[in-house]
Specification:
- With 424 residues, the protein is α+β, with helices and mostly antiparallel strands.
- The chain has four domains: 48 residues; 46 residues; 142 residues, Ribonuclease H-like superfamily/Ribonuclease H (Nucleotidyltransferase, domain 5), CATH 3.30.420; 80 residues, no CATH class.
- The chain is built from 13 helices and twelve strands.
- Helix 1 packs antiparallel against helix 2, helix 1 packs across helix 3 and helix 2 packs across helix 3.
- About 3% of the residues have low confidence.
Length: 424
């Protein structure tokens, strides 16, 4: 006697179609009971009438499908997992199998193979929190943060990854630095603006290079108005608003990005055999970030604006130091004396305040009311008094060949004061 394995669905179809053939119900009612279309119910009735219950059973294909996972393929997948990709997550492992080894599987198929071989232990589902919606346009909000981590195994000290991500389209730029300094954050900001343009708002935490925070005590008072940081001042010049997050969860998009990078980027650099700080930065800039942005950046409308030609990013992203000009038209900065040269007819800046703009390489520029000044470095203070007199007499630094002198004002003949004197 032949044994037939039948499911509950097929058993229900058998009973309903039997009633159809016996004339108890019509075909329209049968299609409603089975939840199928009238046409498909008609096909099932004809097959049941011709073949009996075998016409309702699922028929296996004559040959296995091309996508069937063979034992040889499973063995290769398990070997690759143990040898090269033992600490990769399943999604990362699936991408490597597809891109490098030519094995394309679904996420669940690969997961089941790893569970069967004891190479993956399923975890309980975590509670999913509601995420803040993305901005509608790219350039409306950009998040920035730093992540300290041991990015390569051979590194003695952990590095800092300073990164920025657009809240709307997910574009990312970042770079490794030995420490999280003002210069490091300024360089990342400057490079991001060069690549994409000016954005509207920067979303950051309350780190000291973003916001000055002082706490009062019983022995001293703290002013309510705090001084601007160098980054605050630079962003104000570019008309970029800065917003501060009250918790890491508030800027969750860039926090999740760091989790992704700490998982994938470390393993990718290990496969490449990277053991040096410069090599890691080169791989990040030339390979990993282009791959990430090409795959995960969304296509949305842009709100970035072009940088005007009168804006010098290298000058804007400098560290400014205010200095008051001495009576001999000199200033002191880091143990050196600088002689200021005339500008637009102004021979002396004595008593005025100027800004010394310090570049990362140690070079400086001096600004007076937003305009660059020419200056000379003086080695000796005694020499500066003699040299300053000679420098002030140099006509090539003046905009006009003659000195600008204010003429004495004389009232005209028809002035009311002259008329009054004549009458008197």
């Amino acid at each position: 006697m032949e044994r037939i394995w039948i499911t509950e669905v097929e058993l229900k179809r058998y009973k309903v179609l039997t009633d159809v053939l016996e004339g108890i119900i019509d075909l329209r009612t049968a299609s409603e009971l089975l939840g199928l279309s009238y046409r498909h119910t008609l096909r099932l009735r004809d097959r049941f009438k011709a073949e009996g219950i075998n016409g309702l059973l699922r028929k296996r294909p004559l040959k296995p499908p091309n996508t069937k996972i063979t034992p040889e393929m499973e063995h290769r997948i398990v070997s690759l997992r143990k040898e090269l990709y033992k600490d990769f997550n399943i999604l990362h492992f699936r991408d490597k199998l597809r891109d490098i080894h030519g094995i394309e599987l679904s996420y669940e198929s690969l997961r089941q193979i790893l569970i069967k071989e004891g190479l993956h232990k399923p975890r309980k589902k975590r509670k999913v929190y509601r995420r803040r919606r993305r901005m509608p346009k790219a350039g409306m909000l950009v998040q920035m943060d730093s992540s300290q981590h041991k990015w390569i195994e051979s590194a003695t000290d952990p590095w800092w990854l300073v990164a920025m991500i657009d809240d709307a389209d997910g574009y990312v730029y970042g770079r490794f630095y030995p420490s999280d300094t003002v210069w490091a954050n300024m360089k990342v900001l400057k490079e991001y603006i060069k690549r994409r343009g000016l954005f509207m708002t920067l979303y950051v935490d309350r780190a000291s290079h973003f916001k000055t925070t002082r706490h009062g005590g019983i022995h001293y008072e703290v002013s309510v108005e705090q001084g601007e940081t160098q980054i605050q001042r630079a962003l104000k010049e570019l008309n970029i608003e800065i917003v501060y997050a009250n918790s890491p969860q508030a800027k969750g998009r860039i926090e999740r990005l760091f989790g992704f990078f700490q998982d994938r980027l470390i393993k990718e650099m290990r496969l490449k055999g990277i053991k040096d700080y410069d090599e890691a930065n080169r791989f990040l800039q030339e390979e990993f970030l282009p791959w990430y942005n090409s795959r995960y950046t969304l296509s949305v409308e842009s709100a970035y604006r072009e940088l005007s030609k009168d804006k010098d990013l290298d000058l804007i992203f400098t560290i400014r130091h205010p200095r008051k000009v001495n009576n001999d038209n000199t200033i002191r900065f880091k143990g050196k004396v600088y002689q200021l040269l005339p500008l637009k007819g102004i021979k002396s800046f004595s008593g005025k305040w100027v800004e010394v703009c310090e570049y990362e390489d140690g070079g400086i520029s001096i600004l007076f009311e937003g305009k660059k000044l020419s200056f000379l470095e003086i080695q000796d203070k005694k020499y500066s008094k003699v040299h300053s007199a000679n420098a002030l007499n140099k006509r090539e630094y003046l905009t006009e060949e003659k000195e600008i002198r204010k003429e004495k004002w004389r009232p005209p003949k028809n002035h009311p004061w002259r008329i009054y004197v004549r009458k008197k």
